[in-house]
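Record passed on here:
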Amino acid sequence: MGQITRNGKAYDSVDFMATLNGVPIEVTTATYGNEQEHQLNWTLGQKPSSWSAGKRTPSCTLGFMMHDIVPIELAAQGGSILYLKPFWVIMTFTNEFNIIVVDKVLVKFQNEGREVTGEMGLKKEYTMFALDVKLNVAA
């Protein structure tokens, strides 16, 4: 059973589905969101007089079963998923209010490799280079 974390909130994975460029794929973990810079603005005195917000930075980590990644590696140029162009991953799940939520994440692989453990089913968590995270595109 996988887990999904969206902006720090964990959701149940029972009703979770992901597609990679429109193709359904099994995701074991998904953590994604946006972070925005904030700063205090100072004038004379000890306390800040105001605040301002800066740039937004998207982030994403996805876990996949190895039997799903190997065909993607074989189809990639030179057998490396690092050469793949950015692609959309669409996450669909049911939130705590039983509402279907659809999020879109534009990513590319930032690392590759294997993680072999004594557990059944080989899986690996990949750090993704996130270009865009869109929450609630269809809710």
User: Anything to note?
Assistant: The helical segments are 66-75.
